[in-house]
Amino acid sequence: MNTLSLVSNASFLIYAMKIDLQLAENTKQKNCPSCGGKLHYARYQRKGRIGDLEMPADREGLLDWDTFHSLCCTREGCRKRVRPPSVRFAGQSPYSSATLLLAQLLTLGASQKSVLALCKILQVSERTVRRWLRGWEYIHAKSIWWRRQGSIFNLNGKSLHELWILLQTQKNLEESFKYIILNVAELWQEFKFYVGYPSPAKDA
Ligand SMILES: [Zn+2]
Fold first, then answer.
1. Beta strand segments in 63-201, E
2. Residue 153 and residue 166 in contact, taking contact as beta carbons nearer than 8 Å
3. CA–CA gap between residue 59 and residue 55 (Å, rounded)
4. Which of 54, 60, 89, 192 is deepest in the core (most CB within 10 A)?
5. 56 - beta bridge partners?
6. What is the pLDDT of residues 72-118, one digit of tens each?
């Protein structure tokens, strides 16, 4: 199995959904960041784009891909909305943040043929993928997340693509993939894509 077939594998969707549920539950347990009150779920539907991927019929008891696990403070007078980190939604973008990162990982070292194959799976233009790539270069280079990866893997000036290659010398492809997905929520959150709670309408 190569990286491209892993991205196009539906089990990736189930995995991302499980992570999102766990991330939301962790956020819920921390209570309201404003007043310390209890949080409850105030889920809503977001339109998520998963390209050509087919959602598995058996979702292992998980909700729909389009269900966003938003939280709300239960305390009267506060009622703050809290947005848990997500690997399915990159801020206001309908694209999965994991998808975005993987697209970037692939395009960084990929042949033109692989880039076009990826565009086909995700049903996006090559221009969109290139735009993600530019955004990524800006984001990851400045992040605490990247510095942390640097110290874990002794990267020392290496690129993201080199991290991807390095990961695969230590883990198998599937484990590397899961590692990247798990880490992506933290990265997006660091860059405050979640600031200014967007109205669901913006996701449409
Ligand atoms: Zn509160």
1. 67-68, 71-73, 81-82
2. yes
3. 8
4. 89
5. none
6. 999 999 999 998 888 777 666 666 655 666 666 655 666 677 777 77
Range of 17's domain?
3-203
Pair of tokens at residue 138: 């800006």
Number of domains in the chain: 1
- CB distance 160 to 138 below 8 Å: no
pLDDT in tens, 52-80: 677 777 777 788 888 899 999 999 999 99
Question: Residues within 5 Å of ion ligand 1 by Cβ?
Answer: 32, 34-35, 37, 73, 75, 78, 80
Pull the structure tokens for residue 103.
């697209």
- pTM: predicted TM-score of the whole model, two decimal places: 0.71
DSSP assigned state of 80: -
CA 198 / ligand 1 centre spacing (Å): 18
Q: What separation in Å is there between the alpha carbon of 204 and the centre of ligand 1?
A: 28
